[in-house]
Specification:
With 251 residues, this protein is of the alpha/beta class. It contains 8 helices and 7 strands, in the order E-H-E-H-E-H-E-H-E-H-E-H-H-H-E. Strands 3-2-1-4-5-6-7 form a 7-stranded parallel beta sheet, sandwiched between helices. The protein binds NADP nicotinamide-adenine-dinucleotide phosphate. NADP nicotinamide-adenine-dinucleotide phosphate binds next to helix 1 and helix 6.
Length: 251
Amino acid sequence: MKLKNKVAIITGASSGIGRAIAELYAAEGAMIAVADLDETGGTETVDIVREKGGYALFVKTDVSKAREVASMARQAMEKYGRIDILVNNAGIEGKSALTADYPEEDWDRVLAVNLKSVFLCSKYVIPEMFKNCQGAIVNISSIAGMTAFQKAPAYAASKAGIIALTRSMAIEYAPNNIRVNCICPGIIKTPMVERSTKGSLDAERKLIREEPLGRIGKPEEVANAALYLASDDSSYVTGSALVVDGGWTIK
Ligand code: NAP
């Protein structure tokens, strides 16, 4: 029970990596607020947690909108009375296009959902963490923010921005005992990756061939890293970018 009696807001927890984090945190004793646009998936995550005896609540939130994020923090406070952990996980891949062909409105949307959301959620949750004199923020970046990927300029820029924002917030809030770290996952089998492979076994095999560990990652393997960064196991870790990529970036 590494998160006993802690309260965690997890954005984008209606599916994929966010859901795996919600399930693991709840199993470790945390009370969860699932913040997502997808009401059906969010309710499913809440049901999964509750069926296993955990505590969870769904808060419909577009993380790119300040008013909705403020309401998300308020609803979590009303329900649980404190916020200890924030996982900024919600994200979209955006269009696949070269930079010169990338539509401006898609650029704006990807930056808003992936990067501005980290700013907004942190802006509204950090004051609540001050009240407990401690907190842990875990941002989900990507290896796309560290290396070169073609036809994903907005996604890559947003994920690199998360690493920079993580470091800035880590140094700003270290005196308040709020640790801020990020995770850079590699290719993880979630609906996001399934959208890009379109269920094609060939496309999946191609990805696997590029993996030193010879397989795609599981959402639970990212969740394990997110548990480490949220718990006291990482009490001396802040400002880090933890790579969980099966060795992709060391090739
Ligand atoms: P996913 O299964 O598509 O989950 C993303 C979740 O975020 C979905 O439930 C989605 O809801 C939600 N979301 C999208 N826009 C939102 C918004 N404006 N407000 C609130 N929620 C929103 O993808 P995933 O693979 O688990 O991705 C989770 C995070 O990991 C993302 O930040 C992603 O960039 C990052 N990541 C993933 C991989 C990978 O290989 N899977 C690798 C590196 C990093 P809808 O379904 O309604 O859109």
